[in-house]
Design a protein that fits this description.
Order of helices and strands: EHEHEEEHHHHHHEEHEEEEEEEHH
Number of helices: 11
Shape: globular
Largest sheet: 5 strands, antiparallel
Radius of gyration: 19 Å
Bound molecules: flavin-adenine dinucleotide
Strand order of the largest sheet: 4-5-10-6-7
Length: 273
């Protein structure tokens, strides 16, 4: 290396093999950044938007790969990839989430990208977020000293901003299973490898007697709209009224609002036929 140049490419990697170890490192090295699939973080590092000097590799933490169904609730480890979540049995437990998983990036991205990374990035365009919102998902956040359950609605506080504290990791996401049809749709400027221009997830929840629709890429955070089953026809207009999109390079606000009304109508047709 030439004299006077600093080698700032050196990154120290921590490789915990248990959740306890990962949380210990998180607590004792507060500036260390967690990485799982790296599909968001490595892009940020390549463009020098983030320059972590220490990383915590979560890929060898077995607790983050576990899943279970207990008392009608599906618990998904934060380290599960979308390649896994698009397959059985998840396509029957949480079909809309599996549909969303199939639309994410490319096979290479889906093999690496995790649900925990999608949640921690907290982008309003994150494709797993509308299905999770429709399921009224709760996140299990843990630090070395405590763990807490937070609803996804409360977790997301702004574009790419969440309630995750510096010493916490997302351990799992819990989804009450829904008795009724559900679907996910998204619009992009091409069929694959695009950020959603607008996305929509809809579920008819027979047990609660309501229909829920969640939209993405149409506001600072993903949003949820509920209607009772006897007011189901009001849903497309209610979604269009609830969203707060902006004009950007991918589409105008008025196009996104119109698209969400159309997607909601189509999603209802799909779920009711
Ligand atoms: C080419 C390409 C296409 C893409 N297409 C899509 C798409 O269609 N739809 C979509 O939604 N996204 C897409 N993405 C974005 C990305 O793949 C997802 O957001 C992915 O889910 C991130 O998961 P990861 O494991 O790779 O996260 P990482 O990159 O490893 O981490 C992302 C952030 O989450 C934090 N983090 C990760 N795991 C945890 C945890 N357990 N607890 C706390 N913090 C954690 C990291 O510290 C970091 O801040 C795409 C990305 C690329 C590069």
């Amino acid at each position: 290396m030439a004299a006077g140049l600093r080698d700032d490419s050196a990154v120290q990697m921590h490789t915990p093999t248990s959740l306890r170890d990962a949380l210990d490192i998180r607590a004792s090295v507060p500036h260390a950044v967690a990485v799982n699939g790296g599909t968001d973080l490595m892009v940020e590092m390549t463009f020098r938007h983030r320059r972590p000097v220490e990383l915590i590799d979560l890929t060898r933490v077995p607790e983050l790969q576990e899943w279970a169904v207990e008392d009608g609730t599906l618990r998904l480890g934060a380290g599960m990839t979308f390649a896994c979540l698009m397959q059985p049995p998840f396509d029957s437990h949480v079909p809309a989430l599996a549909q969303a998983a199939r639309t994410i990036g490319s096979p290479q991205i889906r093999n690496r990208a995790t649900i925990g990374g999608n949640l921690a990035t907290a982008s309003p365009a994150g494709d797993s977020l509308p299905p999770l919102l429709v399921h009224e998902a709760r996140l299990e956040l843990a630090s070395r000293v405590a763990s807490r359950l937070v609803s996804l609605e409360h977790f997301l506080v702004g574009p790419k901003r969440s309630l995750l504290a510096d010493d916490e990791l997302i351990v799992s996401v819990r989804l009450p299973l829904i008795d009724g049809p559900q679907t996910f749709m998204k619009i992009g400027t091409r069929n694959a490898m695009v950020i959603s221009v607008a996305s929509l997830c809809l579920a008819i929840d027979a047990r609660q007697g309501e229909v829920r629709a969640a939209y993405g890429s149409a506001g600072p955070v993903v949003g949820l709209v509920r209607k009772s089953l006897d007011a189901i026809d009001e849903l497309p207009d209610a979604v269009a009224a609830a969203c707060s999109p902006i004009d950007d390079v991918r589409g105008t606000a008025s196009y996104r609002r119109h698209a969400l009304r159309v997607l909601t109508t189509r999603a209802l047709e799909r779920c009711l036929r």
